[in-house]
């Protein structure tokens, strides 16, 4: 056990203060995920943790938990954190604050957990605009009278949560800065007679420090979110982070000394000297049966077969890969999603019909944390090059993608298989210097599978704040139920079914204003160009569905191959460059001999490049143009492969 002592001013006393015990104890812990013990020391695990806590029963501690219990873990993937309700109730928690991972399974599930636990949950600075109450049916503050001490508690989260909680609609949440909220609540708690105020936080270290520096009336800060054990001191204040995952906890002793409160902290490591608690072991054994039963739970119904064969996902675009990466992109509101095909297991065609939890675990059996990074167009092209660098070996580094379209020639030399000038992000050809928001597995972000361009990229949302991959997919099915009115309650808080930027792209084609063509003196053949473009437009079908219709389409669970990844030859690359040149530089002009000076050339809609869907579409369009006599020459971008 390790100790630390801080002495604080205790001169703030309320008029209602009664005789306080000279000292009280607080047991603090945070961020618990895996209830099973580890193979090596410290053994940890919920059962040994319970025994370790009981060893301090003679101190009768106030037990405070600072967030993150429901997810992520293998067991929680099946149970949606049900086992944690049992664990937390048996640990005798007196009060807890929410962590960001409490929201991983949606607001409805969290409110069920809140009702099932026998202690209050706090979230002081986020309000659900639908209910005008703290998000997740939490309390804004809580007051506990403990051995003559009247302790005021608040629970504080950070704005970054709202950027990463896939199941929450941030537009329906009012967020209040944690410093401002703390300073607002302190006088309220003092007025209610509190003689000691504790801020229970789930913030990153820099935010905890900012809070300590700017909330002078808070007496003690108990934290979470960070997983390393740490005691942070600023002046005479302390923030305590008590590790993670049942490995350790803290015993805090508050002792009155004249006008001061001495804060003594003991670090307790849960190793094999603590035997597993028999009651906890028995309570958790039930969840092995729960796991088996949950494997048969229906998540939804797929209306098409999904190709998960290894020879497919490791060599080409598949509808299963598109489904998973679309979910990743929508869940994290990213521009691009990339997933190494080695992640996708099962090696089979998944039949249409009921899609069960066991099907999901067959496809995505591993706990894969996601991460969002900022990547330049140049590094994106490098990543795509790496994706096809071992194409002949059917390597697991081959990427399934969303938000990006590219072609590759497997016969070209390494490093020049992906023409950079033909890579598209959304409806535009990639800008090598522009920065994009990309979601991928943290495994790839660390440079694994040859993706050495990722580690240097700025992390926008780290793996701690992103949901697990299979959790994203489960939430997608739950979002479909909510969208279809099959959830327990009507709410706008759910994971996105369609990426916001994709909604906008699809709707742009419906509302496009005609583009006034450039005019320049020209010969009559320019009318032929106009006819060519009109016939070209007849080849392209513009999606005019509204956002609601797009989401209903997503609800059908019928992913398709869209032409995101195409294997091509050098000849096809040349034709694609011709098509790009035509789509970028077509000019509609007045014919000198056929148009009066006052006659205006008909207006032609300008279409996003996205609507030239697949390589086959582009080849067909180009053939129409060539057949009609359009003069085209191969166009190569400077510096392109």
From TrEMBL:
Biased composition annotated in UniProt, kind: Basic and acidic residues: 10-19
Keyword Hydrolase appears in the UniProt entry: yes
Location of the region described as Disordered in the Swiss-Prot/TrEMBL record: 1-21
Boundaries of every Calcineurin-like phosphoesterase domain copy: 25-229
Gene3D superfamilies: 3.60.21.10, 5'-Nucleotidase, C-terminal domain
GO function terms (MF aspect): hydrolase activity; nucleotide binding
Keywords recorded for this protein, A-Z: Hydrolase, Nucleotide-binding, Signal
Domain 5'-Nucleotidase C-terminal: 308-455
Annotated InterPro entries: 5'-Nucleotdase_C, 5'-Nucleotdase_C_sf, 5_nucleotidase/apyrase, Calcineurin-like_PHP, CG11883_N, Metallo-depent_PP-like
GO biological-process terms attached to the record: nucleotide catabolic process
Keyword Plastid in record: no
Family: Belongs to the 5'-nucleotidase family.
Protein name: 5'-nucleotidase
Taxonomic source organism: Meganyctiphanes norvegica (Northern krill)
Taxonomic lineage of the native organism: Eukaryota, Metazoa, Ecdysozoa, Arthropoda, Crustacea
């Amino acid at each position: 056990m390790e100790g630390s002592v801080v002495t604080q001013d205790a001169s703030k006393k309320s008029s209602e203060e009664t005789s306080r015990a000279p000292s009280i104890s607080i047991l603090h812990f945070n961020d618990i995920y895996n209830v099973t013990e580890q193979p090596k020391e410290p053994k940890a695990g919920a059962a040994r943790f319970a025994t370790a806590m009981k060893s301090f029963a003679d101190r009768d501690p106030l037990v405070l938990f600072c967030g993150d219990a429901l997810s992520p873990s293998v067991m929680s993937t099946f149970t949606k954190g049900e086992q944690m309700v049992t664990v937390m109730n048996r640990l005798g928690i007196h009060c807890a604050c929410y962590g960001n991972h409490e929201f991983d399974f949606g607001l409805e599930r969290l409110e069920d957990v809140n009702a099932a636990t026998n202690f209050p949950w706090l979230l002081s600075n986020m309000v659900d605009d639908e209910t005008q109450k703290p998000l997740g049916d939490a309390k804004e503050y809580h007051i506990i009278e403990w051995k003559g001490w009247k302790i005021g508690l608040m629970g504080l989260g950070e704005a970054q949560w709202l950027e990463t909680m896939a199941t929450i609609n941030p537009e329906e949440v009012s967020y209040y800065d944690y410093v401002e909220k703390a300073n607002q609540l302190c006088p309220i708690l003092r007025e209610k007679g509190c003689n000691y105020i504790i801020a229970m936080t789930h913030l990153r270290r820099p935010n905890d420090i900012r809070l300590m520096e700017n909330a002078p009336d808070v007496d003690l800060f108990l934290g979470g979110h960070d997983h390393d054990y740490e005691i942070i001191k600023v002046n005479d204040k302390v923030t305590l982070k008590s590790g993670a995952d049942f490995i350790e906890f803290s015993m805090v002793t508050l002792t009155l000394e004249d006008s001061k409160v001495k804060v003594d902290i003991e670090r307790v490591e849960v190793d094999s000297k603590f035997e597993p608690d028999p009651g906890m072991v028995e309570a958790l054994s039930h969840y092995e049966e729960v796991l088996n039963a949950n494997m048969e739970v229906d998540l939804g119904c797929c209306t098409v077969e999904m190709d998960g064969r290894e020879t497919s996902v490791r060599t080409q675009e598949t509808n299963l890969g598109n489904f998973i990466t679309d979910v990743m992109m929508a869940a994290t509101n990213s521009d691009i999603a990339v997933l190494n095909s080695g992640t996708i297991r099962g090696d089979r065609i998944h039949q249409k019909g009921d899609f069960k939890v066991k099907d999901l675990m067959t496809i995505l059996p591993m706990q894969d944390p996601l991460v969002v990074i900022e990547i330049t167009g140049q590094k994106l092209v490098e990543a795509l090059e790496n994706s096809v660098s071992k194409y002949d070996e059917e390597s697991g580094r081959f990427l399934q993608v969303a938000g990006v379209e590219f072609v590759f020639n497997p016969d070209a030399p390494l490093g020049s298989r992906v023409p950079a000038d033909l890579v598209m992000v959304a409806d535009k050809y990639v800008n090598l210097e522009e920065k994009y928001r990309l979601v991928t597995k943290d495994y790839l972000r660390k440079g694994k599978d040859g993706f050495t361009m990722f580690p240097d990229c700025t992390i926008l949302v780290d793996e701690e704040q992103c949901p697990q991959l299979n959790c994203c997919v489960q939430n997608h099915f739950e979002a479909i139920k909510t969208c279809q009115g099959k959830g327990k309650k009507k709410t706008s808080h759910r994971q996105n079914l369609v990426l916001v930027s994709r909604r906008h792209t699809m709707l742009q084609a419906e509302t496009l204003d005609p583009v006034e063509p450039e005019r320049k003196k020209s010969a009559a053949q320019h009318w032929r160009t106009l006819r060519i473009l009109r016939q070209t437009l007849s080849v392209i079908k513009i999606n005019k569905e509204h956002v609601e219709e797009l989401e209903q389409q997503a609800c059908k669970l019928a992913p398709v191959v869209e032409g995101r990844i195409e294997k091509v030859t050098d000849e096809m690359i040349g034709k694609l460059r011709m098509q790009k040149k035509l789509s970028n530089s077509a000019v509609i002009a007045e014919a000198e001999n056929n148009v009066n000076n006052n006659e205006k050339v008909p207006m032609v809609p300008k279409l996003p490049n996205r609507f030239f869907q697949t390589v086959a579409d582009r080849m067909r369009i180009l053939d129409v143009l060539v057949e009609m006599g359009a003069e085209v020459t191969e166009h190569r971008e400077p510096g392109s492969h």
